[in-house]
Design goal:
It holds the Pfam family MreC. By secondary structure, the chain is an alpha+beta fold. The protein has helices spanning about 1-25, 35-110; strands at about 115-125, 135, 150, 155-165, 170, 180-190, 195-210, 215-220, 230-235, 245-255, 260-270, 275-280, 285, 295, 305, 310-315, 320. It has a six-stranded antiparallel β-barrel. A six-stranded antiparallel β-barrel has the order 6-7-8-11-10-9. A three-stranded antiparallel sheet has the order 15-16-17, with no helix packed on it. Strand 15 (about 305) and strand 16 form a beta hairpin.
C-alpha cells in the first residue's frame, strides 16, 4: 500500500514540475509562437470577435437609451426652471411697476390734502370702448357717487358715470361720446412791478382729438397770451369737478373760426393707455336747491353763508363761489 501511495505522490510531483516548466517556457517572450498557441489564439479571436460585436452593439444601444433619458430629464428640469424664472421675472417687473405707481399715488395724496381721496383698481376695460369707459372696484357701498372726479397720480382722467353697489363706470376724458364740458384755467404768468405772478385764463375743455391724442380747450378769451407747456388745471366753477386738478399742458393755440376766442390743444398729464390704480376725488362742497355751492366742513366745523349768497369755509383752507354751470 505504501508503494502505490508513494508512486502516486511521485506522479503528482512530476506533473507539477512539468506544468511549471511549460508555464515558464510559454510565459517568456518569444519571437515565434508554437503552432498550438497560434491555433488556439486564432480560434479564440474569431469566436471572441463573433460574440463581441453584437454584444458591443447591444450594450451601446442601451447606453444610448440611458443617455437620451438622462438628457430628457435634464432638459425637462431646465425648462421647468426657465419657466419659473420667466414667471418670477414677470412678477418682479409687475411688483416694481405697482410699487412705482403706488409711490406716485402717495405723492399725489400728499399734494391734495384738501380733498378726500378714495383709492380703486381698474377691473375691466373693454377693447371696443377702450377710450370711452373703464370699470373700477368701488361703488355705493364705498361712498362713490355719480359725477365724482377720477384721477391718477398724474392728473384727471374722467368722472364717475354710473354707480352700482360694488363697482362703478368711469367716463374718460378721451371718450368720443363725452357730452360734459370741464371748466378749466391755464396757469399763465405775468410780470407786474418786477414780480412774476400767476394769472389764470379761463376756458372750457370740450372734446378729445383721437388723431392727435390731444384735448381741445375752447372759449379762451382773445388777447390772452397762451404759450406752449403752460399747465391746465380744473377751475371748479362747473359745480362737479373740484378745483386745482391737473389736466395737462398746452401744446399749441389757434384762433377759433370767427376770430373771437382762442382754441388750445392740450397734452393730457395722465397716461390713458396704462390705467391700473385710480383715485376718486370726493367733492368738498354740495349744491343747494337754489344752485349755490356750499362747502362741506370737517367734523366740528360749520358753514356760514354770507348775505351775498357766497359760502365760505370756516377753516379758511378753501372757498368756493358761484353757481353750477353747464361745465364741470
Amino acid at each position: 500500500m505504501s508503494f502505490f501511495g508513494n508512486k502516486r505522490l511521485i506522479i503528482v510531483l512530476v506533473g507539477l514540475v512539468l506544468l511549471i516548466s511549460v508555464v515558464g517556457y510559454t510565459s517568456r517572450e518569444r519571437a515565434v509562437l508554437t503552432w498550438p498557441e497560434m491555433f488556439f489564439k486564432d480560434t479564440f479571436s474569431v469566436v471572441q470577435g463573433f460574440f463581441y460585436r453584437p454584444a458591443q452593439a447591444v450594450s451601446g444601444f442601451f447606453q444610448d437609451v440611458d443617455d437620451a433619458y438622462n438628457v430628457y430629464q435634464e432638459n425637462k428640469a431646465l425648462k421647468a426652471g426657465l419657466d419659473q424664472y420667466a414667471r418670477l421675472t414677470a412678477e418682479l417687473h409687475d411688483l416694481k411697476a405697482e410699487n412705482t405707481r403706488l409711490r406716485e399715488a402717495l405723492k399725489a395724496t400728499d399734494s391734495m390734502k384738501s380733498y378726500q381721496l378714495r383709492f380703486a383698481e381698474v377691473v375691466a376695460r373693454n377693447p371696443d370702448t377702450w377710450n370711452n369707459v373703464i370699470t373700477i372696484d368701488k361703488g355705493l357701498k364705498h361712498g362713490i357717487k355719480k359725477d365724482m372726479a377720477v384721477i391718477t397720480s398724474k392728473g384727471l382722467i374722467g368722472r364717475v358715470q354710473s354707480v352700482a353697489n360694488f363697482s362703478s363706470t368711469v367716463e374718460l376724458l378721451t371718450s368720443y361720446e363725452r357730452r360734459d364740458h370741464i371748466s378749466a384755467v391755464v396757469q399763465t404768468t405775468q410780470v407786474v412791478n418786477g414780480q412774476t405772478t400767476v394769472h389764470p385764463v379761463s376756458g372750457v375743455v370740450e372734446e378729445y382729438d383721437p388723431q392727435e391724442r390731444l384735448l381741445i380747450m375752447r372759449k379762451i378769451p382773445w388777447g390772452q397770451k397762451i404759450e406752449a407747456k403752460q399747465q391746465v388745471i380744473t377751475s371748479g366753477l362747473g359745480g362737479v369737478v373740484p378745483r386745482n386738478l391737473p389736466i395737462g399742458y398746452i401744446v399749441r393755440v389757434e384762433p377759433d373760426d370767427y376770430g373771437l376766442t382762442q382754441t388750445a390743444y392740450i397734452q393730457p398729464s395722465a397716461d390713458f393707455s396704462q390705467l391700473n390704480e385710480v383715485m376718486i376725488v370726493e367733492r368738498n362742497f354740495t349744491i343747494s336747491p337754489n344752485g349755490e355751492l356750499i362747502p362741506q366742513q370737517p367734523t366740528g366745523q360749520t358753514t356760514t353763508p354770507s348775505n351775498s349768497g357766497k359760502a365760505t369755509q370756516s377753516s379758511g383752507t378753501q372757498s368756493v363761489t358761484g353757481t353750477a354751470g353747464g361745465g364741470q
